[in-house]
Amino acid sequence: MIDSRIRALVVDDEPIARGHLRALLEDRGDVQVVAECGDGRTAVERILSLGPDLVLLDVQMPELDGLDVVRAVGPDRMPPVVFVTAHDQHAVDAFEVHALDYVLKPVHRARFNGAIDRVVGLIRSGTAVNRSRPLAEALERLTPPGADRLAIRSGDRVLYLRIADIDWIEAADDLVRLHVGKTVHDHRATMAEIEQRLPASRFLRIHRSTIVNVERIREFQPWFQGDWILVLADGTRLQSGKSYRKRIRDLMGG
User: Fold this and answer.
1) pLDDT tens across 81-94, in order?
2) How far apart are CA 36 and CA 56, in angstroms?
3) Which carries the bigger pLDDT value, residue 4 or residue 132?
4) Gap between the Cα atoms of 151 and 73, Å rounded
5) Domain ranges of the chain
C-alpha cells in the first residue's frame, strides 16, 4: 500500500518545541515526520538528502537561521515552508520569502492545524510548487546590506563564511568558486546571484567570470586595449574584461 502522507521535516533549536510540533503532527493522519533537527546546518543537509514535501522551520536559530537555511538550499530546491516564529515581524519576513504559512510561538493546536490543513491542500493540488523565481527575488531583498557572513553549500556541507575572508570568486560552469586563502569552495549559484549577496562597497565584478575583494588588490597593471591585470596580495593575477573597464577606472579614481 502506498503511503500518501505528506513527508515533513521539523527544524527548531529547542528540543521541547520540536517535540511539541512532532506531537501535533502525529495527532494528524495526513503528515509523517521523516526527521527532525536542531540547527540550520543539519536542516540543509536533511532537506537535500531526504527531499521532504514540507519543512516546519524555526526562524530564529543561532549561527544559521531559518532564512539562511532557505538561502543555502536555494530557491530551486527548497520545499514548501511553514515558518515557526516567536515574533510577528518574522511572520512578515516569512511571507516575503513565499513561505506557505507561519505559526507563532507558543504554538496553539487550532492555529497550527489550520495552517497545516491549508498547506497540505496546496501541496496536493500542486499549487505549492514553481515558486523559485519569486523566492529568489524575495531572498535578495531580505539579505541585509553589509551582512558579514555568507551561507553556502559546499558538497554535503553548509559553510558559514566570513565575507571579509573571501579573496576572489570565479565562475565554473554552473558553479562559482570562492577562493578563501589557499582553500577553494565550490557553490552552486550564478555569478549574478552571488554578486547580489555581497556588499558592493567591498566586492567588484571585473569580468563576467570574476569578482574580487577590493581590499586584496595590491596593484593594477595595464593590459591590452584598455584592460587591466589586477595583482592580489598573494600574487594571484586576475584580468579584467572589456565591459568592466569603467569600474576599474572608477576604483582607481578615474
Assistant:
1) 888 888 766 656 66
2) 9
3) 4
4) 9
5) 6-140, 147-251
Separation of alpha carbons 114 and 96, rounded Å: 20
Model confidence at 38, pLDDT cuts 50, 70, 90, reads: very high
Do residues 30 and 19 lie in contact, with contact meaning Cβ atoms separated by under 8 Å?
Answer: no
Burial-class residue 246 by CB neighbours within 10 Å (0-12, 13-18, 19+): exposed
Alpha carbon distance 58, 55 (integer Å): 10
Residue 238's pLDDT is what? 96
The alpha carbon of 1 is separated from its chain's Cα centroid by a whole number of angstroms, namely 37
Kindly report the number of other CB atoms within 10 A of residue 2's CB atom.
Answer: 4
Alpha helices in 97-152 (DSSP H): 109-125, 132-142
| Rounded distance between C-alpha atoms, residue 41 and residue 69, angstroms | 7
User: Burial, 229: exposed, middle or buried (Cβ in 10 Å; 0-12, 13-18, 19+)?
Assistant: middle
Q: Can you give the three-state secondary structure of 53-67, one letter per residue? A: CEEEEECCCCCCCHH
| Class of domain 6-140 as given by CATH | alpha beta
Write down how long the chain is. Answer: 254
Put simply, whether the predicted model's pTM sits higher than 0.85 gets the answer no
Is residue 203 within 8 A of residue 195, CB to CB? The reply is: yes
The C-alpha atoms of residue 222 and residue 230 are separated, in whole angstroms, by 9
**Cell reading at 26:** 502525529
Second CATH level (architecture) for the domain 147-251: Beta Barrel (2.40)
Burial class (CB in 10 A: 0-12, 13-18, 19+), 18: buried
- What Rg do the C-alpha atoms of the chain give, in angstroms? 21
